[in-house]
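Lecture notes, part 5. Sequence design as translation. It can be helpful to think of inverse folding as translation between two languages: the language of shapes and the language of residues. The source text, in structure tokens, appears below.
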């Protein structure tokens, strides 16, 4: 974990967050600047900068994050109507926090293209 990373600090309980799910590897919490009626962030507890920083040895972690996103979406009642899972990578990809995170967005129709 990084000492100054905001998501690492949330993971350690040093900063408040409205956590909806958590386990030993990851947590899901409400985004402070929601872009949809439901907007959750799913992060690994271990500091990984982005999807691009994942290694082959992180395969289980990557799958775990997707399954936690699915579980959080189901618990928020998003499965029937649908939802979007997004990972932004790097500044041009829209990543604003250098810690891997998945956005789970739902509760309204999503447009395409997103950007």
């Amino acid at each position: 974990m990084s000492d100054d990373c905001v998501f690492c600090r949330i993971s350690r309980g040093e900063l408040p967050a409205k956590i909806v799910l958590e386990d030993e590897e990851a947590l899901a919490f409400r985004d402070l600047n929601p872009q949809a009626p439901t907007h959750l962030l799913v992060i690994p507890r271990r500091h990984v900068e982005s999807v691009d920083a994942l290694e082959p040895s992180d395969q289980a972690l990557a799958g775990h994050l997707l399954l936690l996103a699915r579980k959080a979406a189901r618990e928020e009642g998003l499965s029937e109507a649908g939802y979007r899972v997004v990972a932004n990578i790097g500044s041009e990809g829209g990543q604003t926090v250098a810690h891997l995170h998945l956005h789970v967005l739902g509760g309204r129709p999503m447009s395409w293209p997103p950007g």
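The translated text above is only one of many valid answers, since several sequences can fold into similar shapes. The helical segments are 6-11, 59-75.
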